[in-house]
Amino acid sequence: MSSRDSSAPLAVAMVTLMAGVVVAYGVTAPVPASASAEDAAPVTTAATVAPPAVGPTPVSSEPVPAAPEPPARPVVAVIGDSLAYSVATELDRRLRAVGTEPVLDVAPGRRIPTLGLDGQIASGLDVARSLRPLQPDVWVVQLGTNDVAYEPLDQGRYAFWIIAQLEAAGPDAPVVWVNVHRADRPAEAAAFDAVLALLDAERPQLRVADWAAVAATEPVLAPDGVHLAPEAGGRYAGVIADAVAAALG
């Protein structure tokens, strides 16, 4: 065998050995001695959360919704004569305290079906018609005091007036009616209040605020036995406000 022939197997062996090293290097890269087992593990992006970018907060182009408006307070329309007129400020305050928005139309001498004070004061019927577009949630009618003083005792007529006033207010909203106390007309006042009580029992719309019971048992009247004593305004307004709160449920 020549030297050329003897060196051929050796060359083939060297090439084969080098190829094996290259294949082995491509399969497994050596891990440095200082690296840990975690360094050798594959990286999983599902477990990695990128830190938030630092910069100005983006401004949304969507319109900011308006804050909801508070629910509207129920409107209370008050139609009255000199009794309500004398305590109008306190009555307004008491009605607001029970969560309502009062609208007062009160005047001395007011009557239910006719003009008062020689035609100077609108009737209760006319005032109700003028306030009805407001669609009050509750009506307060404080009338009858002057009617029983100027008209003869007639319960049929009293019933006619009261029903007409209820119809002027409309069929839907409750009506709180303040009953009548007159020391100078006890029979007429009692007859009017009896008609009110009868209609109260028949008509769910109607609720009586019983001022007559208070006036008969407490020192709340002026010397004329009709109007309010100076210190009684709060008591009168309270009777009305309590009845309104009850009507609203």
Main traits of this protein?
249 residues; disordered N terminus; Rossmann fold; single chain; alpha/beta; 45% helix
Per DSSP, what share of the residues sits in E-state strands of 2 or more residues?
5-15%
H/E order of the elements?
A: HHEHHEHEHHEHEHH
Please report the first level of CATH classification, the CATH class of the domain at 75-248: Alpha Beta
Question: Between the first and last Cα atoms, what is the distance in angstroms?
Answer: 124 Å
Radius of gyration: 46 Å
User: What do we call the CATH topology of the domain at 75-248?
Assistant: Rossmann fold
Main-sheet strand order equals: 2-1-3-4-5
Structural class: alpha/beta
Residue-averaged pLDDT: 81
For the largest beta-sheet, the strand count, sense and barrel status come to: 5 strands, parallel
> How many helix segments?
10
The outline comes out as globular
Helix content: 40-55%
For this structure, what is the CATH homologous superfamily of the domain at 75-248? SGNH hydrolase
Please give a structural write-up.
- 45% of the residues lie in helices and 10% in strands.
- By secondary structure, the chain is of the alpha/beta class.
- The chain has a domain at 75-248: SGNH hydrolase (Rossmann fold, 3-Layer(aba) Sandwich).
- Residues 1-53 have low confidence and may be disordered.
